[in-house]
Amino acid sequence: MQSFRGYGQVTGEQGRDGQKKKRLAIIGVSSIILVAMVVAVAVGVSHHSGSGSSESGSDNHVQDSMKAIKTICQPTDYKEACVSSLTSVAGSNTTDPKELVKLSFEVALEKVKKVAGQSALLKEVEKDPGTRQALSICDEIMDYAIDELKNSIDQVGGFDLSNMEEIIENIRSWLSAAITYQETCVDAFENTTSKAGEQMKKVMKTATKLTSNTLAIVTELSDVFASFKIPNFNRRLLSTSNEGFPEWVSQSKRRLFTEDTPAESIPDVVVAQDGSGNCTTVNEALALVPAYGIKPFVIYVKEGIYKENVNIEKNMTNVFMIGDGPTKSVITAGLNFVDGVKTFNTATVGVVGNGFVAKNMGFENSAGAEKHQAVALRVESDFSIFYNCQMDGYQDTLYAHTHRQFYRECTISGTIDFIFGNSAVVFQNCQIVVRKPLDNQQNTITAQGRTDRRSPTALILHNCSIVADPEYYPLRNTLPTYLGRPWKEYSRAFILQSEIDDLVQPAGWLPWAGDFALNTLFYSEYDNRGPGAATAERVKWRGLKSITAEHAEKFTVARFLGGTEWIKNASVPFIPGLIPQVSTDTVFGKV
Questions:
Q1: Which of the chain's termini has less CB crowding within 10 Å, N or C?
Q2: What fold, for 257-570?
Q3: Closest CA to 421 of 464, 384, 467
Q4: Alpha-carbon distances of 45 from 51, 87, 152, 225, rounded to whole Å
Q5: 147, 396, 417, 501: which is the annotated catalytic residue?
Q6: Which run of H or of E encompasses 145?
Q7: Smallest Cα–Cα separation from 341: which of 378, 316, 307, 379?
Q8: Where are the transmembrane segments (predicted)?
Q9: Which residues of the chain have a pLDDT value below 70?
Q10: 65-227 architecture in CATH?
């Protein structure tokens, strides 16, 4: 498996710097600015709350600045880079928050511009089609990474101590996404014939270190702020109605999600192949979506097989797509790796715009097992929900790439690494269908891609069923199936309270290559059932751990996703925590 899929050119936020050659520079700069802003806030609060006299001189300023920098850098993995970069930004005699931010921008921009000035990589683009495609992928996802860091800076710059926990959760998710995009960019150069991959790794190294340091700082921010004696460290709940919808969702649009069919409600756009709607293709409907809309834009896709590659772009926020059923309203295409398309770009449907919701829809990549990597659905959308949907493919069917995602009562089919990515994602009450692979292959259900040990990401199956496709079932003992393998160093996957049929091998999990990540991954199985759920013969890796109910609870919808705040429980039922082992489920909505 490789780590790249794609969609068309995405229109960015208003005011985005359009100079492509500066993107890597801005990423590094943004990371430093975010760190500097945390320092500025901490130092500012420390002075505000202190009772020092006006006799404090330059020595105190130096001490305050260095103390703040060392405190902030303490939890980072790259302490030397952290201290040196912040020292150059903050200087030795500045404690004013505004001046710190100004200096951080001016000094850091000049430093990282030198890195971005390396043009050798761009010179290679004309020589190799694979390299050209990889550069195009980087061009796109570096925009996403920049936005993640800008969002983080905005949150830190205008935070309210009363909702600090919520802010920290958001920033950690965004920084994790930025790190993932940087990794995806580097991965895009696998199997290229030029030296571009190694050059890109060198260019990206500083930016990744700085972003990782920033994630470490934010992860430990509660302790850092405690060291400066900051009070009122509480959480503010999101504004929702009694039904669980955001208050701005109208009653007519709420009915679209509570009813089995949207026929009697009024969507914004109707897609119908027979001409009975506003559009005949899904892409035509998406062209009508207002940029960065706050209210939901509802697209009703009538029954039909829609042969098109669809991109819900970054500016298409709060798109709600509803079909007539997961096998009736189907979007399908067949881009694949064997035919020369980078895996990132093979997605039949790519979802970037935040707040995407799909109900009763099917997503398919029809390329077939012999075409290897071929994505049906790729999702970067934060706070995205898929309810009663179907994702069909073989290798790399569902790419849950980044951010917070929830899947309920969905069917996902495939063979190799067919649920993968580095999002914070929960699959609940879903059916995982393993298909027949090629004769020389073995199946792996998950391939989680966490690269930073502080990323708040994991792949979680809760109350799901893992079964064999009828064609594969007679071959399950000769073409083995495993729960997953570690794609990246800090891979995390959890199988909770699920039904595992006898297709899963007793060893349970498969290595990626040799002993890679076996000590750093975190895999666990808790309270599962079925003939494939026995753990006595599971692999004896250091990273495969037994967990208690209390620990497992941390990886449920309520605790891991904060789902009780953003999953619209009137439209999408969900189990907030673990299922009681004896009594009936306690759920929001239906079971």
A1: C
A2: Pectate Lyase C-like (2.160.20)
A3: 384
A4: 12, 19, 20, 9
A5: 417
A6: helix 129-157
A7: 378
A8: 24-45
A9: 1-62, 68, 90-126, 156-162, 221-265, 568-570, 581-591
A10: Up-down Bundle (1.20)
